[in-house]
């Protein structure tokens, strides 16, 4: 059976990226690889819309999240963390793990951060060193207003670092790192960058470097300044993944960032309006263009929907935490195009029909087609 991966990570990897990674391995301390590494970092800057240095760690995105805490916060420091999903909760856990104090702003899963809440937290808590947030909360398919938050921080609290987990945002959503005052922006290879898991990227501002230099915390492997100084990796880099990233970033830039963001916007709109046309409800109050989280119909578990779709070779994702079994998530970030969404929605309709859900058969696929024809 042919398999279709519609999960928010890992996501499908283009053939040309796979082929570039299958070439014979080269040594990581050669001039050849150093040249590839530098070019790849420069390409990443363009995709992340920054002039800041970009660091690459051989890790999942959570490794980059840890680095953004361990390198920035000393024991006893205070940071604001925004928690509106599983990965927002992770910020708080990492901050506490390194002996710092997390001032947690908590929202319901599916809700989004409010600028005024963060501003009030800064007013009521002195000496906040950093604000940690997601751009796109992967567990709920929600986009936080990081543009407004970043500009508020720049204007009113310029001493606080703005640290953004953009793991399901960069490469899918128009995140303007420098213009939005993002001091550390994070992404991972297995999302919109169209690679297998194993590579994490961080953009690091000059302000962030100054804070890191004064930090008294302990770290070894996740050494941001050490990685910057080493030019091609302080430790053995993931050579094949870096080569694959070089190819995927060129694909993104060849398509054109504006075109990439527009494609993701259209795919998101078609997916979200298609499930609504089936009488289903979106979880998020501010849906992201990278993935769509959908509430399961009453008396039908999302696990059953996922299992039925898998019978057709289509794999989507369950909810996380207390939403497991209650929502399902459909990805449309990275190597996805209009036919992928039509296929996924039509299989979703068949799965729902088999599970006894009563809706007008074909309404979802029809709505997605109408949106695609209009674009």
Architecture overview:
- This protein is α/β, with parallel strands linked by helices.
- It has 2 domains: 4-8 and 256-374, Alpha-Beta Complex (Aspartate Aminotransferase, domain 1); 15-255, Type I PLP-dependent aspartate aminotransferase-like (Major domain) (Aspartate Aminotransferase, domain 2).
- It is built from 13 helices and 15 strands.
- It has helices spanning 15-21, 31-48, 61-70, 86-97, 115-124, 146-156, 206-214, 224-230, 239-255, 257-277, 302-311, 338-354, 363-374, and strands at residues 4-5, 53-57, 78-83, 101-106, 128-134, 136-137, 142-143, 161-165, 184-188, 200-204, 281-282, 291-295, 314-315, 317-318, 327-331.
- The strands form 4 sheets. It has a 7-stranded mixed β-sheet with strand order 2-10-9-8-5-3-4, sandwiched between helices. The protein has a 4-stranded antiparallel β-sheet with strand order 11-12-15-14.
- A hairpin with a 4-residue loop joins strand 6 (136-137) and strand 7 (142-143).
- The protein starts with a strand and ends with a helix.
- 49% of the residues are buried.
Task: Give a quick rundown of the structure.
The chain has 375 residues and is of the alpha/beta class. It has 13 helices and 15 strands. It has a 7-stranded mixed beta sheet, with helices on both faces.
How are the SSEs ordered, and which strands pair?
Blueprint (H helix, E strand, L loop, with lengths): L3 E2 L9 H7 L9 H18 L4 E5 L3 H10 L7 E6 L2 H12 L3 E6 L8 H10 L3 E7 L1 E2 L4 E2 L2 H11 L4 E5 L18 E5 L11 E5 L1 H9 L9 H7 L8 H17 L1 H21 L3 E2 L8 E5 L6 H10 L2 E2 L1 E2 L8 E5 L6 H17 L8 H12 L1
Helix pairs in contact: 1-9, 2-9, 9-10, 10-13, 11-12, 12-13
